[in-house]
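Morning!

This is the sequence you dropped in the shared folder:
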Amino acid sequence: MTDLDALRRASIFGEALAVIVAIVATPTYLAAFGWDVEAAIFVHPEAVLGRGQDTALLWRWGFLGDMLYSYLLLLPLALFSHRRVRPPRPWLADVGLAGALAYIFIGGAAAGILAQAGASLIEAHGAADAAQRSAIVTSFNLLRDAFVFGVWQTLDALTAGTWAFSVGWLLLANRPLVGRSLVVLGAWAWALAFATMAGIHSLAVLGGGLAVAVAAWIFWTALDRTRAGPAAA
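The structure's back. Tokens below.
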């Protein structure tokens, strides 16, 4: 077995495990926010503070699960994709790997911090008086702004976008459908980062951007088929 084969198997195992963890952790995470999807995506403090100790438990395990399936379990995939696409343009593959590692480790660290610190603030809020609750809300907002908006939706979006775009670009020649999907996904992630930088935190904007990305992929695929014929894809 070659190193590439070993990485491929590790990647498949990591992705399968990530799916299993996501199936359990995602409902747990959403339950912490009372199944409010927008509140869960943008981590609205009012959706979790004051909802009791059970919410703190759901929060902790939801974020710890996210640390695994969104970040750490993707490490074998990052290493495999780098080895798989590196020969044609090593510099571009290396840029993609740098983006992947930054996304995985910085984003994973943010998830771990949010899991523990956020749960502690939720628990403290339930036992605090009015003055203390005001301070806890301020601390919670600071935690959210730093790690959700600052790390996840800005830095992570830029680094994950770089990873997806570079791998997709290098796959265009041999795997055009997958390559185009990753290029468009990377561009959408960059757009998310710039929207966050502009202070835009909207589920409608997020969904609209994704719809534009899907439309761009469809148009690109149709255009390539028209130019090169049915055998191109």
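Headline: The chain has eight helices and no strands.

More detail when I'm at my desk.
O.
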